[in-house]
Amino acid sequence: MAILGIDFGEKRLGLAISEDRKFAFPLKVILIKKTIEEIIPEIEEICEEKNVKEIVIGLPLTLKGEEGEKAKQVKKFGNLLKEKLNLKIIYEDERLTTKLVEALMHELNISEKKFREKKDMIAAQILLQGYLEKSR
Question: Comparing C-alpha atoms, which of 65, 56, 45, 76 is closest to residue 7?
């Protein structure tokens, strides 16, 4: 039973996968062209192909730990996924995940162009790995 991790963004979704519930791996980035609804079939296809039973979505809380407007958008997306795919949806605090990825990419001296292409799925990987470690 696999778990899909999603780093939600306004223009892109970063996806990561854990098929063994021990290690998370970056999977892909999905571009959002017009609406979030248009990408549901692609996520559904991935879930069927990888036998996903749970989805962990990064919840962007404020530094005070509160839900702001962005968190409400994420929950709306999560509810849509739950309705369409009938899978368990888990929200995981993603505060500072993107900053951690940016620091890692800078440390590894990865170019800005390559960084943009990969940061969302690496953020999803970090998010999912954190959830896996916490749930052991």
Answer: 56
> pLDDT digit string (tens) for 60-115?
988 888 898 999 999 999 999 999 999 999 999 987 777 777 787 778 887 777 77
What is the enclosing helix (H) or strand (E) of 112? helix 112-134
> Quick one: fold of 2-134?
Nucleotidyltransferase; domain 5 (3.30.420)
Q: What is the pLDDT of residues 12-68, one digit of tens each?
A: 999 999 999 999 999 999 999 888 899 999 999 999 999 999 999 999 988 888 898
* Whether 41 contacts 84, CB under 8 Å: no
In DSSP notation, 41-84 reads HHHHHHHHHHTEEEEEEEE-B-TTS-B-HHHHHHHHHHHHHHHH
Which position has the token pair 């739950």?
A: 82
Q: Packing angle between helix 97-107 and helix 112-134, nearest 10 degrees? A: 130
Element (DSSP H or E) covering residue 88? strand 88-93
